[in-house]
């Protein structure tokens, strides 16, 4: 019998036999879409901070909702200063449920942090190829740390007041850390950070009033 020569199948078809074919093009498009959404949201928040700069401090009049809203802006931007910590600190000293101020602020920062994650997911790797700058240099160093001990580094920078959370969140998106893990780690860290700030405000403001003879 005459043997037929084996037919070479396309690589894409061969790779799909017995395995789940990964839609690389769709994944890339989705990643870029997330990146674009993240950039747009960040720009919109930065514009809002500039346009409503005088009104931001008045958010403390809205109590827990104010802590949530200003923390969204503070958690998503680093270039434009937001008086988030000052407002949350003050609310910690005057609101009835101090712990609820901390939770509201932490949830707000988490929402802001998700926009950074989306930006990094779609465009974080592009920063490595861009021209060197302070933000990009910090991002490259953070990317190296995140590749080694990503979860621990992310938790630490989310738990304390510092300027390194933004590049860490970008790196988390670029390294494709799962959204569920990212959310859980960042929320835990932000709760620790925000509780520290609000209770510092509670005891600080309370101590000042007690010093002048006013009991809260």
Give average pLDDT, whole number.
74
Kindly report how far apart the N and C termini lie.
99 Å
Largest sheet: none
Assign the structural class, choosing from mainly alpha, mainly beta, alpha/beta, alpha+beta, or little secondary structure: mainly alpha
Low-confidence runs: 9-26
**Percent range of helical residues:** over 70%
Describe the protein's architecture and organization.
Helix content is 76%, strand content 0%. By secondary structure, the protein is mainly alpha-helical. It has one domain (25-125, 132-211). Helix 4 (63-76) packs antiparallel against helix 5 and helix 6 crosses helix 8.
List the helices and strands and how they pair.
Elements: H1 11-16, H2 24-51, H3 53-56, H4 63-76, H5 84-94, H6 98-129, H7 134-159, H8 165-174, H9 179-211
Helix pairs in contact: 2-6, 4-5, 4-6, 5-6, 5-9, 6-8, 6-9, 7-8, 7-9
Q: What are the main properties of this structure?
A:
single chain, elongated, 216 residues, 9 helices, 0% strand, mainly alpha
């Amino acid at each position: 019998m005459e043997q037929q020569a084996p037919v070479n199948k396309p690589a894409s078809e061969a790779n799909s036999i017995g395995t789940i074919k990964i839609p690389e093009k769709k994944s890339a498009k989705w990643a870029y879409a997330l990146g674009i959404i993240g950039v747009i949201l960040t720009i919109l928040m930065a514009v809002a901070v500039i346009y409503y700069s005088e009104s931001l401090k008045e958010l403390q009049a809205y109590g827990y909702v104010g802590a949530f809203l200003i923390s969204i802006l503070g958690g998503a931007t680093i270039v434009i200063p937001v008086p988030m910590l000052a407002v949350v600190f003050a609310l910690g000293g005057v609101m009835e449920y101090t712990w609820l101020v901390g939770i509201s602020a932490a949830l707000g920062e988490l929402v802001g942090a998700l926009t950074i994650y989306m930006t990094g997911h779609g465009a974080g790797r592009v920063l490595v190829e861009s021209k060197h700058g302070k933000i990009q240099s910090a991002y490259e160093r953070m990317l190296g740390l995140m590749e080694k001990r990503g979860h621990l580094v992310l938790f630490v920078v989310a738990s304390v007041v510092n300027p390194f959370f933004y590049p860490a969140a970008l790196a988390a998106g670029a390294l494709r850390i799962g959204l569920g893990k990212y959310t859980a780690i960042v929320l835990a860290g932000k709760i620790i950070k925000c509780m520290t700030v609000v209770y510092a405000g509670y005891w600080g403001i309370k101590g000042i009033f007690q010093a002048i003879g006013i009991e809260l």
